[in-house]
Design a protein that fits this description.
The structure holds 3 protein chains of 3 kinds.
Chain A lengths: L1 H28 L4 H6 L5 H11 L5 H13 L13 H36 L4 H15 L2 H18 L17 H35 L2 H8 L4 H38 L5 H11 L2 H29 L1 H4 L2
Chain B lengths: L21 H5 L7 H10 L2 H18 L1 H8 L36 H37 L1 H16 L2 H12 L3 H28 L2 H9 L3 H37 L11 H9 L8 H29 L7 H15 L1
Chain C lengths: L2 E12 L2 E13 L4 E5 L6 H8 L6 E9 L2 E2 L5 H7 L4 E4 L3 H4 L6 H12 L4 H14 L5 H4 L9 H12 L6 E5 L7 H18 L2 E6 L2 H7 L2 E6 L2 E7 H6 L4 H9 L38 H5 L5 E2 L5 E2 L29 E17 L5 E16 L3 E5 L6 H8 L7 E6 L2 E2 L5 H7 L3 E4 L13 H11 L5 H14 L16 H13 L5 E5 L7 H18 L2 E6 L2 H7 L2 E6 L2 E7 H6 L4 H9 L3 H11 L9
Parallel strand pairs in C: 3-8, 3-9, 6-7, 7-8, 15-20, 15-21, 18-19, 19-20
Antiparallel strand pairs in C: 1-2, 1-4, 4-5, 9-10, 10-12, 11-12, 13-14, 13-16, 16-17, 21-22
Helix pairs in contact in C: 4-5, 5-7, 7-8, 8-21, 11-18, 15-16, 15-17, 16-17, 17-18
The chains are: A mainly alpha, B mainly alpha, C alpha/beta.
């Protein structure tokens, strides 16, 4: 177990270093000059050079990368080109909003996906199965932003027109301030993020459960006279857990993408929003910081999932 | 080679008389290639046929976009500030001049939608072919070579998969600048890894099959085994993945365009049409700007997804939705195992 | 009567039409008795019992199945599930997949008890420990908390038996309970089941394809073919003086001790398809005695003796023991053992095992073959017997140069193959070929049969174009395939025919040595005999040398002249078949031979007392 963990952590760190390296290289070879962007369109060449020196952009790229990596290990991600705020601070400040959105979305996705998947798998070929399949295929076909726009149109605009304003159009209220408002503001974004991801889980649970229910040990459980509900939920679902948990780690990267769009549509000031804004401003340190933070989450999630996987599987746990 | 007569007291020659089971002879399954079988299953699947018709229609419409534009008399990027906008500057809804209404700049939504289809499909096809090519090559090499090659390639796959795709994509686009080419490259960049993963897994399991060992014992080279024994058995997953990748690519392109990082306006794409609808909540006054592009996008992606599902069912009947059929194949397998 | 089945009929609807799996069967089973149900793939033997207890999903079942007077077929799912466990216990074929991998074995047995009885957790645990002890699990109080993967296959099947018998059901349905296990383990398990049967008076419905198993344990025997019961009677009657041509064919197909130099009576043709719903006797298409009437209606039962009935129109006198014809001594393989063709000296083969160390950079070594030496003489058949994990298949692959050696040498015609260059190794393939175990896995499903058989000729650039096609068709004819099926795909052939394709491919290069790795173990008995006979006749005609690897002692005895017994990577004993089977020197060989089911005991027992011995008319 320790051997396994140490291997995973090592490869996770390698991944992060590789990503930051690639980002650095990309910015280096990119045609546009951040110093010129920041100095403004009217700036003279001297002014641009001044900006470049102030930002440290005049140093060789290897040296800059080395400084960045050493800083990284001390928790220093550099400063924003745009407002000179430490990158780490601005990321941390926006983390709660993004985390609320991500966790809630995942919960919606799992709840919806597992329910639909199990319902479909219990009677393959039934109308419930066909509805489930329809849901899955719709979910896989709808881009997050379309789902978000339609939700906004129906639940915000049409309801407001009818005089029922329940959902706010945009914004985020911290949980610590007002839990109820927090949930009210996030409900539509959660459904947006969750709906699209739910399709993946519904499909996965259905196909896994159908194949598990054909296993010999399910026949054994039935031959003992165990009731069908218990056969499905206890014996069947036990072995569907592992692939579902694995899927969560694979999904995490995709979920992050969903957040960028959702934050934009619902006006939530999270990390995704910050990333888009920084891209438009050419604020390199912030972009790299956001990228690394997101990658870090993905890496951590995948390590946690591998751990959970080992704990869930008796064949790995008990040697 | 000598011609021994195998007429020993046992009648081994009798073996091939009823040969193919009576049932398969009766249903005419005999002597049909796996491809023909799949085709006949697909033809009898209404969902697959409807999806295929939808896709063909969209493709035809996309190809004849200039023709349609000429018929209607509206260019895709032409602004009709007088006819398309109300005196207060708001877009007009669907009417006999603007079939699906006009957008915020007074352009014909219908014509733009068809031009958007053209772009979406081209981006999706090119990206899918590229991603399938790279994914197959990398996956097959990793799975077949194993060892260090596999370790390195798998690391690349895993790293690509663990990248926050959209974030990475937007920073990439911000550097290189949005364009048609960038969009295709970005989609390929994030689509090859899942294919490579699937292909690698399949290759790993195929190379453990006895027929690969048999080929090896015959003296076949690695190259021949890859070409003759591994690749044909990969066609099924590649084909299935391909049909499912097209809608993903369409969605990816639309998302990038929506964020203003795909193909740039005024060129019409479904993504930037929807972006126009959402800017300043235009859709609250002009619902058609939201509804029609969304519907078009959904129809096409849904058709591809449904077709992909059907293709998979037809290629592998064990995965089919119909329980009884499944059960029986399973029973047959069991009986064989006896 | 404990169980009375009347007119049981099972149908599944499939995309290709209705599949009539069981066609109106009736039988009875009394308390404490064992009924053996024998049949090959597709005979309906497993489906019938699973449908009876409601475990065959999607089946349409009619008829009656009275268990202690109550009809199982009219029960609703809740009533049926209350019967499964306390009244009917079940053991299935594959112990590796029949227990839930994620639950402790004790929990799985306790769950069955608690479903049907109210009792405290503590007393249930004590009961489970006692049950595990009863089925011979050592240290049951500790092992109760282990997971299935911590047990061997045989031990897992013991757990399954404990589970099935936990509530002391009156009926135990054992569906191929020992098929997946080695012979020594099989013998122990059959003994265990018989002990428990005597102790608790359990009736056993033993479903199996293995006549040896039936010969060992059954009181009465039913033979099934194509969803129908074709013959029934006591064990001695059905095995000793069978009447139905199918029962006779089955018995004639099984190699047994002392059957060397005989020709197996294979049943021609392929097993019938259950989708085929023609009237008449299902066996008619393969029967040598078929008459007009057989094609129209299924014959009524003919009473052979008060206890024996056969559904066949042949006269009663047809019943009699099966005697196999003998090949004239001059033709037998033993006479012509030539010079040494290949020599295996002190061969050792290792594989990488589990990772070691903090980062897993080093690995354990697993020794699969450990110092094996053998000579293979031109024209002979060398049998290698061993149980699973003995290293016999690894040795076979090393012999064909597929696996590198970790130590020792293999010489072919005096040259050490491990020192071969790539080109030399390539030409070695022309002389050494292999026939594989799995008739489904060893052929690429995506390619046409003609091109599969042509592969070796193309790879070695021996033939092309029209020449190639005629060579391939010659080969197909040689192995008994219709050359016109050149363009078909493997999926259109049955298991036996696919194995013929594999043999044709191996023959294409006219090799000197053919290594056969369990070539018949995946086939039905009647098909097995066809393939064994084909291999023998090809050897006689083409002067081939075989290395024949199998776990089935009787098959090896039938085909080989010399035999080597492998155990844990070593050869414990080798020599002529007569010597090894007649006077085994090593203890392991003796235990293997003792464990192998002996069909001969039963047939000999009946044959001696029988008055009418009819020579086969084949």
């Amino acid at each position: 177990m320790i051997r396994f963990l140490s291997r995973r952590i090592l490869s996770g760190i390698l991944t992060l270093i590789a990503i930051s390296g690639v980002m650095f290289l990309l910015f280096y070879v990119a045609p546009n000059d951040p110093a010129a962007t920041i100095a403004g369109p009217q700036a003279t060449n001297d002014q641009i050079d001044q900006v470049r020196a102030r930002l440290g952009l005049d140093m060789p790229v290897i040296e800059r990368y080395w400084l960045f990596i050493t800083g990284l290990f001390q928790g220093d991600l550099g400063y924003s080109f745009f407002n000179k705020e430490p990158v780490l601070d601005s990321l941390v400040r926006r983390l709660p909003a993004t985390a609320s959105l991500a966790v809630g979305g995942l919960v919606v996705a799992l709840g919806l996906g597992v329910t639909i998947g199990v319902g479909a798998a219990r009677k393959p070929g039934s109308w419930r199965d066909k509805l489930g399949t329809a849901f899955v295929l719709t979910g896989l076909s709808v881009p997050t932003f379309v789902a978000g726009l339609i939700l906004l149109y129906v639940f915000f605009y049409l309801l407001t027109v009818m005089g029922l304003t329940f959902f706010p159009a945009a914004g985020y209220v911290p949980f610590t301030e007002n839990p109820l408002e927090w949930a009210r503001h996030l409900l539509l974004p959660w459904i947006t993020v969750g709906f699209v991801a739910a399709a993946t889980y519904a499909r996965l649970v259905r196909s896994q459960l159908v194949s598990v229910m054909g296993e010999d040990y399910i026949r054994t459980a039935r031959s003992k006279g165990i009731r069908e509900d218990r056969v499905v939920y206890r014996h069947g679902m036990r072995n569907v857990l592992t692939p579902v948990v694995t899927q969560i780690s694979l999904d995490f990267a995709i979920l992050m993408g969903g957040l960028v769009v959702t934050e934009r549509i619902f006006g939530i000031n999270g990390i995704g929003r910050l990333a888009i804004d920084s891209v438009n401003r050419g604020d390199q340190p912030v972009i790299i910081g956001a990228m690394l933070l997101a990658s870090l989450f993905v890496v951590i999630a995948s390590i946690l999932v591998d751990l959970a996987y080992a704990l869930l599987d008796s064949r790995v746990r008990v040697k | 080679m000598p011609e021994p007569t195998v007429d020993a007291p046992t009648d081994t020659t009798l073996d091939n008389q009823p040969s193919v089971s009576a049932a398969s002879a009766r249903t005419g399954v005999a002597a049909r290639s796996p491809f023909q079988l799949v085709w006949s299953r697909l033809r009898h699947d209404p969902t697959a046929m409807v999806s295929a018709v939808v896709i063909v229609l969209v493709i035809v419409a996309a190809i004849s976009a200039p023709l349609i534009s000429g018929l209607v008399g509206h260019g895709p990027d032409e602004q009709f500030r007088k006819e398309g906008l109300t005196p207060s500057g708001l877009p007009t809804g669907p009417n006999d001049q603007f079939l699906l209404g006009a957008d915020n700049l007074g352009r014909d939504l219908f014509v733009r939608l068809i031009y958007g289809a053209q772009l979406s499909l081209i981006v999706a096809f090119v990206a899918t072919v590229g991603a399938l090519g790279i994914g197959t090559l990398v996956g097959m090499t990793a799975g077949f070579m194993r060892g260090k090659v596999d370790t390195v390639l798998t690391w690349f796959m895993d790293t690509t998969l663990s990248l926050p795709q959209l974030l990475f994509a937007i920073s990439l686009v911000s550097l290189v600048g949005p364009s048609f080419g960038t969009t295709v490259v970005v989609i390929i960049l994030f689509s090859w890894a899942p294919i490579a993963r699937v292909v690698r897994g399949q290759t790993l399991s195929i190379r453990e099959k006895e027929f690969v060992e048999a080929a090896r014992s015959l003296g076949a080279s690695n190259w021949r085994i890859m070409r003759v024994d591994v690749l044909p058995n990969l066609v099924v997953p590649i084909l299935v993945y391909g049909t499912l990748l097209i809608p993903q690519a369409i969605v990816f392109e639309a998302t990038l365009s929506f964020l203003g990082l795909g193909v740039l306006p005024p060129t019409a794409t479904w993504g930037n049409m929807l972006a126009a609808a959402s800017t300043g909540s235009m859709y609250t006054i002009a619902w058609w700007m939201l509804v029609f592009p969304s519907a078009a996008l959904l129809c096409v992606t849904l058709a591809f997804n449904l077709l992909g599902d059907s293709v998979r069912d037809a290629l592998d009947p064990r995965q089919t939705l119909f329980a009884k059929k499944r059960r029986v194949t399973k029973l047959k397998k069991k009986e064989i195992a006896e | 009567m404990l169980l009375t089945v009347e007119n049981l009929d099972v149908t599944f609807s499939t995309g290709d039409g209705p599949l009539h799996a069981v066609r109106g069967i009736s039988f009875e089973l009394d308390h404490g008795q064992t009924l053996g149900v024998v049949g090959e793939s597709g005979s309906g033997k497993s489906v019938s019992t699973q449908a009876m207890v409601g475990l065959a999903a999607g089946a349409h079942v009619t008829g009656r199945a009275l268990l202690q007077g109550r009809d199982l077929l009219t029960m609703n799912p809740a009533e049926l599930s209350a019967v499964r466990g306390p009244q009917i216990g079940m053991v299935f074929q594959d112990p590796l997949s029949s227990l839930h991998p994620q639950f402790r074995i004790g929990w799985q047995i306790a769950e069955a008890i608690q479903r049907h009885e109210r009792s405290s957790a503590k007393s249930v645990r004590a009961r489970v420990i006692k049950l595990l002890d009863e089925v011979g699990i050592p240290n049951p109080d500790k092992r109760i908390d282990d997971y299935p993967h911590q047990f061997s296959g045989g031990m897992r099947q013991r757990v399954m038996i404990a589970l099935a018998l936990a509530l002391r059901p009156a009926l135990l349905v054992a569906d191929e309970p020992t098929t997946a296990l080695d012979v020594t383990v099989q013998a122990q398990l059959l003994d265990l089941m018989q002990d428990l049967q005597r102790e608790h008076g359990t009736a056993i419905l033993m479903i199996t394809h293995d006549l040896g198993v039936v010969a060992g344990v059954a009181d009465n025997v039913i033979t099934m073919y194509g969803g129908r019961i074709v013959e029934r009677g006591t064990r001695a009657e059905v095995l000793g003086r069978p009447h139905h041509p199918y029962s006779k064919g089955l018995l004639g197909s099984v190699p047994r001790g002392g059957s060397q130099r005989t020709i197996l009576q294979s049943i021609p043709g392929q097993p019938m398809s259950l989708l085929d719903d023609r009237p008449g006797c299902p066996f008619a298409a393969r029967c040598a005695f078929v008459q007009e009437a057989c094609l129209e209606t299924f014959p009524d039962a003919r009473v052979i003796s008060p206890t024996q009935q056969s559904n066949c129109i042949l006269p009663t006198e047809f019943a009699g023991p099966v005697v196999l014809p003998i090949i004239p001594a001059a033709e037998s393989g033993i006479a012509k053992t030539g010079e040494v063709l290949a020599r295996i000296s002190d061969v050792r083969i290792e594989f990488d095992g589990a990772r070691k160390g903090l980062l897993g950079l080093t690995r354990d070594k697993i020794v699969a073959v450990d110092g094996v030496s053998l000579d293979i003489r031109a024209g002979e058949t060398l049998g290698i017997v061993g149980e699973s994990g003995s290293g016999k298949s690894t040795l076979a692959r090393a012999l064909t140069g597929l696996i590198p050696l970790s130590g020792g040498t293999i010489e072919f015609e005096g040259e050490d193959i491990s020192t071969f260059t790539t080109a030399q190794r390539h030409s070695l393939r022309r002389h050494v070929q292999m026939v594989f175990q799995d008739p489904f896995g060893s052929l690429n499903q995506q390619r046409r049969v003609g091109s599969i058989i042509a592969d070796p000729l193309v790879i070695h650039r021996i033939a092309d174009g029209r020449n190639l096609r005629s060579r391939v068709q010659d080969l197909m004819e040689l192995v008994g395939l219709n050359p016109e099926h050149y363009n078909r795909f493997p999926a259109e052939f049955s298991g036996g025919q696919r194995q013929r394709i594999g043999i044709a491919r191996a023959l294409a290069l006219e090799p000197k040595l053919i290594v056969c790795d369990e070539p018949v173990s995946a086939l039905d008995v009647s098909i097995q005999a066809q393939i064994l006979n084909l291999l023998s006749s090809l050897q006689r005609e083409l002067g081939l040398t075989y290395v024949f690897i199998a776990h089935d002692l009787a098959v090896v005895e039938h085909i080989a002249a010399r035999v080597a017994v492998m155990y844990k990577g070593k050869i414990v004993e080798s020599g002529p078949v007569e010597q090894i089977y007649g006077a085994p020197a090593h203890e392991y060989t003796r235990s293997l031979l003792a464990a192998a089911p002996h069909l001969d005991d039963v047939t000999a027992m009946v044959g001696a007392s029988s008055t009418t011995q009819i020579e086969e008319a084949h």
